[in-house]
Amino acid sequence: MSAWSAIVTTATTVSPVRDAGPIEADALADSAVAADAAAAAGAAAPASLDLLDLILKASIPVQLIILLLVAGSVVSWVIIFRKQAQMRRARKEADRFEESFWSGTELTRLYESATNRGRDIGGMEAIFEAGFRDFNRLRQRKGVDPRTQLEGAQRAMRATASRELDSLEHNLELLANIGSTAPYVGLVGTVFGIMVTMHSLLASTAQVGIRDVAPGISEALFATAIGLFVAIPAVWAYNRFATAVERLATRYEAFAEEFSSILQRQAHLEG
Fold it and tell me: What is the residue range of 170's domain?
């Protein structure tokens, strides 16, 4: 009995050791699956896009084109801010002078205010000052008929209006050129970037994949994106400012016609 008990005891003791083998194998399998899943998740995670790194690692032609586009963007934004302030000032001056002109103030008093050397005049007030100055100058001459007086005032107002509008249109042409050429300059950068990438791939003897092509394509497309970023604000601002200049030109022309009618009546009354 003691021998049989020893055998049973030994079998009972060894049995749990045999059963531990499948448990450890399952644990190892689960660990391997978890490691594979983590590796797959890390491979599937998208790489962050570093724009500065794209520029620094770009080819020399692409870098020069990006630098040119950045310079064009700076110039266009300087023009936009200055032109915005100039247009706002011109509208305010036109509103202020029209209010004074149609308030019933005497023309002589308005002229004295316009010729005050303590301040600089422009816009509609400058047109009024030029027309009234020539009208008074011709009226003081003997033998000058009212029609000649009126024509002289109208010529002076047209010349002054042209100078004022030319000042408002200054640098608009440059803004339009930047807006129209920036996408094509960016496209040139894209072409150079793709060409450099293709030549580097052809020169490589190793097998290449998407990881080898992606940086070159990214820098090429980045040049096009910068070109559009420069062009869109420039084109929008040019259209906005061109419309504003046309509206001011219409206001100046209408004022000149109305002021000519007033001068015509005054010339006939004095004649």
Answer: 51-270
